[in-house]
Design brief:
The complex is a heterodimer of chains A (291) and B (300).
Chain A (H helix, E strand, L loop, with lengths): L2 H34 L3 H5 L13 H8 L1 H32 L7 H13 L4 H10 L6 H5 L6 H12 L3 H9 L4 H12 L1 H17 L2 H6 L8 H20 L11 H36 L1
Chain B lengths: L2 H32 L5 E2 L5 H4 L1 E2 L3 H7 L2 H21 L1 H12 L3 H12 L6 H12 L5 H8 L11 H29 L3 H9 L4 H26 L7 H6 L5 H4 L2 H11 L3 H30 L5
Classes of the chains: A mainly alpha (291), B mainly alpha (300).
Pfam families (chain A): BPD_transp_1
Protein name (chain A): Carbohydrate ABC transporter permease
Keywords (chain A): Cell membrane, Membrane, Transmembrane, Transmembrane helix, Transport
Chain lengths: 291, 300
């Protein structure tokens, strides 16, 4: 076998393995879609694997006519947008002054911020703080504590520092103020990094779970993840109960409904992801350059 | 420039900093101050300052708890196993993607392999119960259809460990390739051509060119991972775990949550959190020191 043939064999094997990995990556999603579209009888008899059996859309009809689910989706969208806007406003307000090396006190403020990357009080003191601020069980408990990530802030500062000073100097000669220069120069020029960081904040908030579990008690303020968690937990209980031979299955919702709810919560991410993939990847690169 | 003129010129920059600095003071330094309840018999009625000092009593109590050592062991065990299983996976996949000649297939593979990273642990948990469940999970349907006994993937602690690790690989392997692929874009393709002229096969080129060029990235990532040995996320063990496998699934983060917020023993939970933060800091600083010595590169 010569090198050329060896190379071709390598390419074929490589492609086949990657193809299998891609299938492995997708299989769980395909399975859960199949479950969501199958009849309860087929699911209980264990026939459903990757293709729906007894195809029907009832579970989806039930999910989208469930007002509490729609409200939860609406609340999650509101929460995510509010959080992201607040995060970026605060991050930009911090990053612009901190990008100026000559600013007096800059080093102190940077030190003040970077310390928080290495040491935190932990979740119990955080919980006590949120409770003492009287924002427990409100949207603010999910917005305020996570406003600025020092790591993302450093990425933003580095980006702004790479904008040529001459641009800003010429703007200042025209009698422009720092506020003006921030809005008319720095923000427009930072759009790529703003888009990337916004995405990271937004996805983090959308998928965030622990703080919703800790801070939210009113069902009308349940974000999607918390709402879904109850279904998942339910799922687990049913698995355990069946294991122990108890007959608790009648009380539980059909598997297809749980599967449809999972899909319902996944679709928003899957819809935006392919279009925004570029920005996500950029974000990792920005972080890597820094690290 | 005197002080008044300096302020007049730069006040806008300082004004911008007011809210962010306040944010860090309240939401980051506030909880740091709150850590003092580790040394107090805290209750909400008397508040942080009003509660009685108890010195190191709570520390003695925590260090005498069996569950504390169990969760500490589990945290280190899960992180270590994760490192062994999940760390090499992205490296292999990145090299395979890099070697792929068909551009469209490479792009498509990347897009799909990245997806699990964007799925929340709640959703992954929901999917996991459908796939690994003992009664009606997809895998067990297949296993039993061949006449074998169902495997308790989620309810036997040893099987659960494998399930936990497998889900981790599934979730992180694709996304983890990005950093390696980024490092490889800087690699000079001429090296490969030269090697080919010298008669080196594909495997040989991977071994002698691609892998060595990734060495700094691998070392840095490895050190960062070791630095985070004691910190563990909450969502994954909490959601993938359940009461039947608590012997393995109970880790420091879930322990803090259970003791603190479910049982209301705020002081004890704060002690555990403080222990984790201090040891974590030592680990991170230590790994940075090693990184400086080894790779002449600070990871902080």
């Amino acid at each position: 076998m010569n090198a050329r043939q060896g190379g071709r064999l390598f390419d074929t094997v490589n492609m086949i393995i990657l193809f299998l990995l891609v299938l492995l990556c997708l299989a769980p999603f395909v399975h859960i879609i199949a479950i969501s579209l199958s009849s309860t009888r087929a699911i209980n008899s264990g026939e459903v694997s990757l293709l729906p059996i007894g195809l029907n859309w009832n579970s989806y009809k039930q999910v989208i006519t469930d007002m509490s689910m729609i409200k939860s989706l609406g609340f999650t969208v509101l929460l995510t947008v509010l959080f992201t806007v607040f995060c970026m406003t605060m991050s930009l307000a911090a990053a612009y002054p901190l990008s100026k090396m000559k600013l007096k006190g800059r080093k102190f403020v940077m030190f003040f911020i970077i310390i928080t990357m290495f040491f935190s009080g932990g979740i119990i003191p955080e919980y006590i703080l949120v409770r003492n601020l009287h924002i427990l069980d409100s949207i603010w408990a999910l917005v305020l504590p996570g406003l600025i990530s020092p790591f993302y802030l450093i990425i933003l500062i580095t980006f702004i520092q790479n904008i040529p000073d001459s641009l800003e100097e010429s703007a200042e000669i025209d009698g422009s103020s720092y506020f003006r220069s921030l809005f008319s120069l720095i923000i427009p020029l930072s759009m790529p990094v703003i888009a990337t960081l916004s995405l990271f904040y937004a996805v983090g908030r959308w998928n965030g779970f622990q703080d919703t579990l800790m801070y939210i008690t009113s069902p009308e303020l349940y974000p999607l993840q918390l709402k879904l968690y109850q279904l998942v937990q339910n799922n687990m209980v049913s698995d355990l109960m069946q294991l122990e031979g108890a007959n608790g299955t009648q009380l539980l919702q059909p598997e297809s409904l749980k599967a449809a709810s999972v899909i319902f919560a996944t679709v928003p991410i899957l819809l935006v992801y392919p279009w925004l993939q570029r920005y996500f990847v950029n974000g990792v690169m920005l972080g890597a350059v820094k690290g | 420039m005197n002080a008044t003129r300096y302020i007049r010129r730069y006040w806008q920059l300082y004004a911008l900093l007011v809210l962010p600095v306040l944010y860090f003071a309240i939401f980051k330094y506030g909880p740091m101050y709150g850590v003092i309840i580790a040394f107090k018999d805290f209750n909400f009625f008397q508040g942080i300052n009003g509660s009685k000092w108890i010195g190191f009593d709570a520390f003695r109590e925590v260090f005498a708890m069996r569950d504390f050592y169990k969760t500490l062991r589990n945290t280190l065990m899960l992180n270590l196993l994760d490192l062994i299983v999940s760390f090499p996976a992205p490296l292999f996949i990145a090299i395979m993607l890099y070697e792929l000649r068909t551009a469209w297939f490479r792009k498509l593979s990347q897009t799909i392999l990245y997806i699990p990273h964007f799925i929340s642990w709640i959703i992954i948990g929901g999917i996991a119960y459908q796939v690994f469940g003992t009664q009606s999970g997809m895998l067990n349907n297949i296993i039993t259809s061949f006449g074998f006994d169902a495997v308790p993937f989620l309810t036997n602690k040893s099987y659960w460990l494998i399930t936990y690790l497998a889900i981790g690989v599934w979730q992180s392997a694709g996304w983890g390739t990005i950093i390696y692929l980024a490092a490889l874009t800087g690699l000079n393709r001429e090296l490969f051509e030269a090697a080919e002229v010298d008669g080196a096969g594909r495997m040989r080129r991977i071994w002698s060119i691609t892998l060595p060029s990734l060495k700094p990235t691998i070392v840095t990532l490895l050190i960062i991972n070791i630095g985070h040995m004691i910190s563990i996320g909450f969502d994954r063990p909490y959601i993938i775990g359940n009461t039947t496998v608590r012997e393995y699934s109970d880790v420091l983060s879930t322990f803090v949550y259970r003791v603190g917020l479910e049982s209301g023993q705020y002081t004890l939970a704060t002690v555990v959190g403080l222990f984790q933060a201090v040891v974590g800091l030592v680990f991170v600083l230590g790994s940075n020191y090693v990184s400086k010595k080894l790779a002449d590169q600070s990871i902080l």
